[in-house]
Amino acid sequence: MPSWSINRSIRTPLLLLGIVEASALFVAVYVAGVVIYGSLQDSEQLLGPLLPRAVTVALVMFAGLISVGLYQFHQRVIFREVFVRVTVAVVVSGLVLAAVFYLLPMVAMPLAMISLTGVVALLLLLIVRFGFVRSVDENVFRRRILIYGAGDRAAAISSLRRRADRRGFMIVGQIAAQGDSQAVDLANLLSRDNPLVKTAQENNAEEIVIAMDDRRGNLPVRELLDCKLRGIDVIDLVEFFERETGMIRIDLVNPGWLIFTPGFRVGAFRRATQRFMDVFVASVVLLLGWPLMLLVALVIKLEEGLNAPVIYKQVRVGLHGDRFDVLKFRSMGVDAEKDGKPVWADENDDRITRTGKFIRKYRLDELPQVFNVLRGEMSLVGPRPERPEFVSELTEKIQYYAERHTVKPGVTGWAQLRYSYGSSAEDAAAKLQYDLYYVKNQSFMLDLMILLQTMEVVLWGKGAR
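-> structure tokens emitted (465 positions)
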């Protein structure tokens, strides 16, 4: 099975935060019961056991927190934005809980207790989040890294300039390697006079990042082994970027790394679980979403005329390069490409109708793709399918672009969460780095996380054109 470690996709700070917040949500039910009924015994005597109710509330509200993007480690941590997101999560989760209690009356709670549980949960979550915001910005959770290299590859770490990008690590020193070009500030370099393990220990380094320009004959194997045996992790630059940024830097990768690194394979169990999730979720979306789909179709007809087509079919490239017709609600005029040439959608594209702008912003135009998923042409999660004309062009221009077609294309994906809408070859190259991360690390849990966080894109209308 592909590797999907805590340190990479679920950061340790977020894991701890999740445990604390899930516990707070669980406790909120008991607090509400005691406040309303006077004691735990009285509340359970009148309602029945609170345990199944507390578990239900914790699961639904925790999913709500994920869906509004509160578990993205590299998101900017601004408390007022956190306050809005937590509030939205609690309110939306309350509505979902009302439906759950209607369907499962054995775990239902009175309206007053649901409301008080929501208030208590909100207060506890805000207290926990305030402490988390302070701790992540005070180096509490940052790994102390020592960079071995001072050339162009080492300088790539300096490109991570945003505070949010450096939230996971703290540079304690840098050592020039033999054969490196000097691409970093010499004032930041440490002396090479002492053994590497001693330098790492003196600077309390937890990890050494190998960022040499040329390893051939220059890699200090014995010294690095000594460091590893002393409890200091040693990590390659590509793996470092993969962990810290959630992408695979194609400018740093060579074919050998792709061959020997773990991941990049899909077994029978993975295919079976993915297909089960695809069919189950797509069926639920179709069952619950058909009134909304009918409404979107009606609005398109009202704006464009009764003879205007509602569904737009377009040839896309899927698994192993196979072509299929992707289905979307039509958001552009009928003659959007009257000359027959494919054109990237642009910001403020005048081909988009008024209805089209709305359904694109909230991703409603993608709803018909549940039929593509049910037919097996697409998955719920994966790289977005592109048109054959663009694929041919991008495959020639961008190294490793064809590798994104080793998995099924998706309705949503890792790149859609981590990168804004792409409308050029440069954007495609940037998104490819996130797509490769997904191809390498794909798993049921990663798919589930992406689906939940896609709700953030829908609710906030992020990245839409």
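The first helix runs from residue 12 to 37.
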